[in-house]
DNA sequence: TTGTATGCGTTATCAA
DNA sequence: TTGATAACGCATACAA
């Protein structure tokens, strides 16, 4: 049994489709009696307007989409949760697309765009010309963690100052000399900023910035491989600042393999605060990004955009939190349970406070 | 600048839209010279067919969707990866929908269905009547981890035999007497089967099945709370079989709080093999589900369905792997590094083999 | 080999 | 207060 159409509703209620449409959209005048008949017909037929017809007739699609390069990392779940909360509140459908490993991701995204009114684009998905094309088609776009483009609003997480703070933590609080940065700044502007902040931390202390970065893509296996090489080098490295947690955990494995204890023989820090970071021993010092807030904010900007406010072409910066665990050398070395690891966090630009568990 | 339509292409090439349509879909005869002109016009205008027009005209949408209750757990990423691999190979777009916390998830899914040719529905999304409605609309559906419904093909992970094996492992290999099952069988048929397998394991050893299950939803915080209560009970529990890893990790925290060592004073097992399971100390004994295979298989069934083969209404069962770490009492208690935890795994129905790291 | 005309389900314009 | 009718972009039976 196929779906009922507006024609069947109209005929059952003894009116024209125009009147039905009026009732559906609450537009224009309809006599109370007529409205009543129509509402009944709709209910009796179990009628639901066709999304296709609506969209084709040029109405809003009442849906937005978010595009990720990859649905695997720790990143997307948090962002989606935030965006979805917004979507639910705004009564808008949310579609998700991963371009991962697809041949013609550009065509894919363009098709995806036809389903929605607005799009959230994360790093490594669509840029430059393709982005222009999308905008030309009238899709509203918000960038997430992307290099800022003229005229397109963006949401970013502030990274550089935290990387600087973290670096200074190693240099000053722990009095170290030889740090290394692991990760490829080309991957995204966020990573680039982490590397810059790492340099900033050295400069602010009058230190000569070390070599590097040691470029590798952000996977645990790569962290392991890179660390094996680094640790075999002549110069003894005291701490490795990793571009993300997965790399850092790879370093853990390499350290064990070379008989180095963390943090006694080697200190490590990550970025992202993935679940493993809390359970690894010793607990991984890292940066917690408010991913949900990211998604939520993107949604709010989308709202403004969809309402026709074109003024919001600015970049919104979201703050993070520095999570101090033990891998940097802080705190005790209680190994009996990761869950109980003492841990403190620094919010914003250095305002310290303790968070329970 | 709006998108070009088929009419503009036709007029530029000096033909009718019918001929353009023929070229686009490789259907019917077109003179080589004409085709050439049209192809040129398409390129020059940067024309891309409208997905809307196509869909409305009754063609295939060339897209499938997957619906999750929730995009947060460890479950979805793996399944999506598998399904996406299939989608990429089949040149079909993949949309993802999370119904989480939405008011009218039924309406949401129904709208979602209009965008796609086929749908993969996971547990706790759509059932019964709503499912019937979808099928009535002609959407092809594959169920994932759902109770089997007549006429609808399904993919399931075999749970019961593994739960039985695991239970016997505690009872026989470790010679324990008092086990408990933590988790709510009502959540999904998979959990229900784990509970049944737990009972099976007792029965097969001529033991009287213990009380329980201790019902709680599958979150770490609930595992913690439930374990605190359980461990305060009079009867001493030797092992807790948890319905998933997150519950198990909650138990870890509770154990530490009560001064119990795992596995010396309390044994624990989980289910899912989430990343934390490998990093926790001691490593968590658990069941690894081949989530990617799940997604891939669902895709393959969808292919058959979309090709009009209606015969595939059977249930496909996918095997898992038992991952033995230390929380069950096996192996050493090397605590210096979780990454190096010795670990062995049992594939299929007891065929043991060792997997490196 | 090509073109005309119709339908798909809706909204919107205009007239009644 | 209501109703014809024309878009919207495409595919397709049928005609030429």
Describe this structure in a few short sentences.
By secondary structure, chain A is α/β, with parallel strands linked by helices. Chain A contains 13 helices and 13 strands.
Summarize the topology.
The structure is a homodimer of 357-residue chains.
Chain A: H1 6-13, H2 17-25, H3 32-45, H4 51-56, E1 63-68, H5 75-90, E2 93-98, H6 105-113, E3 118-122, H7 128-136, E4 140-144, E5 154-157, H8 160-173, E6 179-182, H9 189-204, H10 220-232, E7 239-242, H11 245-257, E8 267-269, H12 275-279, E9 286-288, H13 291-306, E10 315-318, E11 321-324, E12 344-347, E13 351-353
Parallel strand pairs in A: 1-2, 1-3, 3-4, 4-5, 5-10, 6-7, 7-8
Antiparallel strand pairs in A: 9-11, 11-12, 12-13
Helix pairs in contact in A: 1-2, 1-3, 5-13, 8-9, 10-11
Chain A binds a DNA duplex (16 and 16 nucleotides) through residues 5-7, 15-19, 21-22, 24-25, 27-31, 34, 49-59.
Protein described:
The structure is a homodimer of 357-residue chains. Helices cover 41% and strands 15% of the residues of chain A. Chain A is α/β, with parallel strands linked by helices and 357 residues long. Among the domains of chain A are: 1-48, 434 Repressor (Amino-terminal Domain) (Orthogonal Bundle); 160-291 and 320-346, Rossmann fold. In chain A, the strands form three sheets. The first copy, chain A, has a six-stranded parallel β-sheet, with helices on both faces. In chain A, helix 1 (6-13) crosses helix 3. At the A-B interface, helix 4, helix 5, strand 2, helix 6 and helix 11 of A face helix 4, helix 5, strand 2, helix 6 and helix 11 of B. The structure holds a DNA duplex (16 and 16 nucleotides).
